[in-house]
Design goal:
39% helix; alpha+beta; 781 residues
Length: 781
């Protein structure tokens, strides 16, 4: 039951509950209810007075008593009905009972003060946010001399507002209070739906933009000319709690204390319950106003939880984002927005998010979800909408493929179109990897196979994100005006040649390379300098997401979409590679490896690439991933590594095992085996959400090329050793030919030594090593 009748029913329940109290107590409780309604911005004081007057006049017109012809007679009854109705439309009866319980002594004695508009002398930690902002403007209106005297109070007020609206993290506040002005804070408050904080993702985006555009005499560029913030609004994290309460779903918060098996089994039911829930009337109305103001601009709805993008905890890829074309009727657009928010709410209880919180030992901290809604950056191209550029940036480059590259210069993972192809592992395509100190230096040979061929766009007709080949995009919208900065041309002899005009591009087949952009514009230098400025402001390494458009002068206007501390493995010295007997070598590898040491490995899980490639059924390939997940759980307390074909976590099941994070998070090392015969070459994962997962969890990920000179891969050992799969996962016996679990026995264990400086790696059998103090994983040194 939904709509006005549903709200009247809830209002009647509240009226019946209040009827248990005497008249004085009812009046006091309703004043508490109105305080909550104003606090959460369901209505303001002025709006409330207007509503009361309107309702009182309505009562007067319907009255038959000739002696009561003034609306003032009906104001007390109007206040009662409006209070009950608005509270019922936005809160549950359980929440009202909670308010009553919290104020029970005051209700009994009527001696405590009743919430009223606050005066100038208040407790900043408890004061209403709107009052605090008015107070800040009062300080701003003081003379310079008076403001200097009040400076300690102003600083305290600014910090309290940052804590109340943005983030309570001390590390964030340390930086934010130097850059965020009262105007910034007031704008955040104006763009909020509901109350609470805007969450980690919103906080990082806002702070990064403010740092880079704040003028500094040492700036090599006028960054305000090149950087901008996206048009955004926010749903405060209190709306998440209120949604659960309003729909009687608060008990689902206890899922985190259940076993992972129960969490995984019960999640579909919880997701369905949340998706079927209703928003309080005030939230839905405010969402309508915000989305109507955007017009027909496509939007992206993003998670912004209080734990997300934290210092040391990125939650990268744990919650989904939803692109909305926003091309329907106002009602359709609002319904799509509400559904996207509810799906993000449901993601808080997903197995992926739960496993991440457990692994990082934050299971006891309450996860409260705010929402960030942004306009999608870009322009319309026929039926498609996309930005010229998008990418993810690391301020410290963890993957230095040449001695000319300095890790402190940063790394950019660049694509044409939506940034989904930069942050996710896409099986069939390659982004451009850019070392910002040497932007034209590529990690791979220049070829069409190693270039981006597919583009993610918002299809405005279908109302969804689709992937289209570059040529189809050009056929739909024509050659873009700035194409020479994005594309090169492929000649008949398979040569890629830089284009200087669209005529040059038409002389061959267009190929996405960004060669002219990176080699002949100031884009890499502006981005590198802006990145360095933000890093100095934060005082730590950072991971950012951006989109950009190229103007008629060939200049890039960069929109910062996200900023968070970069996850880095603890630095470890590159271990020496020992000399071992050939029969004890499991594999040798070189190139694209970090420095790491893993000792006393008991189990090696091996997904045979050849056997996996011969699985005809898509269902069976997904079942292989689920079995890996069960092994991951069974081996949680063991030291284990896993090797398999192509790309772990790929969304293309033909190119790798499609595991989720919680299905591999207990392994110490993931090896991606690429044999020439299978035609699979592991894509560099640096900069993706998948890579962030590995870094934060302490998992080492390496590519293994058995067919390269100097490499060694002991198939005979892996395929001839007894298979422990059936003893660990008995129900998986039919997949014993695909998944082999090698257990090191006879008093020996497996050991891994990876030396990133020498680009040499070794896995071998030997006697157990003494404890290394827990330092078994290292950085990409």
């Amino acid at each position: 039951m939904e709509g006005p009748q549903y709200e009247l029913t809830r209002s009647f329940q509240i009226f019946n509950y209040l009827a248990h109290f005497n008249d004085e107590a009812q009046d006091f409780i309703r004043r508490l209810m109105r305080f909550v309604l104003k606090r959460d911005r369901v209505f303001s004081e002025l709006q409330y007075k207007a509503l009361v007057q309107q309702k009182a006049e309505e009562f007067m017109r319907r009255a038959s008593d000739p002696y009561r012809q003034k609306s003032e007679f009906f104001i007390p009854e109007a206040k009662k009905q409006l209070t009950d109705l608005y509270f019922a439309a936005n809160y549950s009866l359980d929440y009202l009972k909670y308010i009553v319980a919290q104020n029970a002594p005051d209700i009994e004695t009527f001696k405590a003060p009743i919430p009223e508009p606050l005066d100038f002398n208040v407790d900043l930690e408890k004061a209403d946010v709107e009052h605090l902002i008015k107070r800040m403007y009062a300080y701003e209106a003081l003379s310079v001399e008076e403001r200097q005297k009040a400076n300690p109070d102003i600083q305290e007020l600014r910090i309290v507002l940052i804590q109340r609206l943005i983030s309570s993290q001390p590390e964030f506040i340390r930086v934010a209070h130097r850059y965020l002005s009262i105007g910034d804070i007031h704008n955040i408050h104006d763009q909020m739906v509901g109350s609470g904080r805007v969450g980690g993702k919103s906080a990082g985006m806002l702070l990064a933009h403010r740092i880079v555009v704040t003028p500094d005499p040492s700036d090599p560029f006028d960054f305000s000319k090149y950087f901008r913030a996206p048009q955004s609004f926010y749903v405060g994290d209190d709306a998440f709690h209120n949604f659960l309460d309003y729909n009687h779903l608060l008990p689902v918060r206890n899922q985190k204390f259940k076993s992972m098996e129960d969490i995984e089994a019960e999640y579909p039911t919880i997701e369905a319950q949340i998706v079927a829930g209703n928003f309080p009337v005030s939230v839905r109305e405010n969402l309508r106003k915000k989305i109507d103001a955007l017009g027909k601009q496509p939007i992206i709805v993003r998670s912004s939880s209080l734990l997300e993008d934290n210092f040391g905890l990125s939650f990268a890829g744990k919650y989904d984002s939803y692109f909305l074309a926003n091309q329907g009727t106002p009602a359709q657009n609002l319904d799509a927005l509400a559904m996207a928010i509810k799906r993000i709410y449901a993601g808080v209880f997903s197995p992926n998010a739960m496993a991440y919180r457990r692994r990082n030992e934050i299971i006891y901290r309450y996860e409260s979800m705010a929402i960030l809604v942004q306009e999608v950056e870009g322009n319309r191209h026929g039926r498609y909408f996309l930005p010229d550029l998008a990418g993810v940036i690391f301020s410290e480059n963890p993957y230095c493929w040449s001695r000319r590259i300095r890790k402190e210069d940063g790394l950019l993972r660049l694509v044409h179109g939506l940034g989904t192809r930069a942050v996710d592992r896409v099986g069939e395509d390659y982004p451009r990897m850019v070392a910002l100190g040497h932007p034209t230096l590529r990690p791979e040979a220049v070829s069409t196979r190693n270039s981006q061929r597919l583009v993610d766009v918002v299809d405005l007709q279908k109302g969804d994100v689709v992937t289209v080949p570059l040529q189809e995009l050009i056929d739909e919208a024509g050659m873009p005006s700035n194409a020479v900065y994005l594309l090169s041309t492929l000649k008949d002899d398979d040569r890629i040649q830089e284009a200087f005009t669209t005529v040059d591009l038409m002389s061959g087949k267009p190929v996405i390379t960004f060669d002219r952009l990176l080699g002949r514009t100031n884009f890499p230098r502006v981005l590198k300098a802006g990145l360095e400025k933000i890093r100095r402001g934060y005082g730590m390494e950072l991971d950012l997401e951006m989109a950009a458009d190229i103007n008629g002068k060939g200049e890039c206007i960069i929109t910062l979409l996200q900023c968070r501390p970069q996850s880095l493995r603890a630095i470890q010295q590159a271990p020496p590679i020992p000399d071992v007997l050939p029969q004890d070598v499991v594999f040798r590898c070189e190139r694209e490896i970090p420095s790491a040491r893993i000792d006393n490995i008991r189990y090696l899980v091996y997904v045979d690439p050849d056997a996996y490639s011969h699985i005809a059924s898509h269902y069976d390939r997904y079942e292989v991933a689920r079995i890996v997940g069960r092994l991951n759980h069974r081996l949680e307390k063991e030291t284990a590594i896993i090797l398999g074909p192509g790309r772990w976590g790929s969304n293309n099941i033909l190119l790798g095992v499609p595991v989720k994070y919680y299905e591999i998070n207990n392994f110490k090392l993931l090896g991606e085996v690429a044999r020439a015969s299978n035609g699979v070459v592991p894509e560099v994962s640096y900069g993706t959400h998948f890579f962030q997962d590995l870094v934060e969890t302490g998992i080492v990920c390496i590519p293994i090329y058995p067919d390269r000179p100097g490499a060694c891969f002991n198939d005979e050992l892996l395929l001839s050793a007894p298979n422990a799969l059936a003893s660990l996962v008995p129900e998986a016996s039919e997949f014993e030919h695909v998944i082999r679990v090698v257990e090191a026995t006879n008093g020996r264990r497996l050991h891994v030594r990876l030396n990133g400086k020498e680009e040499r790696g070794l896995c071998y059998l030997a006697a157990p090593e003494e404890d290394q103090g827990g330092k078994d994983q290292g950085s990409a040194g």
